[in-house]
């Protein structure tokens, strides 16, 4: 766990402090409330870093969450508190999050949660999963996922656009260079 690591110093301590400063208690609180609603269990939804870590560190709540969103996502949830079993739960959650559509750039590494290295990335991952939950008929959090707005143009419409001069090419109206005297001397 986090207590087994050596204390960071110098640049490493500064980098870790910067990572930890990005943690937002309000976002963590919203995520914990959403998880409690989905799994239908009472949780301590206090958004403080210590509580957020304590609620999620063993990965069982995370596995229950993905199983509620899509049944059978995690086949076996380990209830043991042994380190490798807890990390296996977290890995199973991350694999299920990928299949549910959470992009890899919004996911966290197992050590980010287990060793409390970057809890902000855990919040980001859960927010992303919250946006995907509405695709599976569950209440979501955050902004609604965007949908495609495919447009089909006829050949006639496409040909008509060829004759339009884009404003990016410039214009023959408005500002011009009259009055600019390149090469002329200043008359006094």
From TrEMBL:
Chain coiled-coil ranges: none
Gene Ontology biological process terms in this record: actin filament organization
UniProt GO molecular function: actin filament binding
Ranges for domain Calponin-homology (CH): 25-134
Pfam families: Calponin, CH
Entry's Gene Ontology cellular component terms: actin cytoskeleton
Family the UniProt entry places it in: Belongs to the calponin family.
Listed name of the protein: Transgelin
Source organism per UniProt: Folsomia candida (Springtail)
Lineage: Eukaryota, Metazoa, Ecdysozoa, Arthropoda, Hexapoda
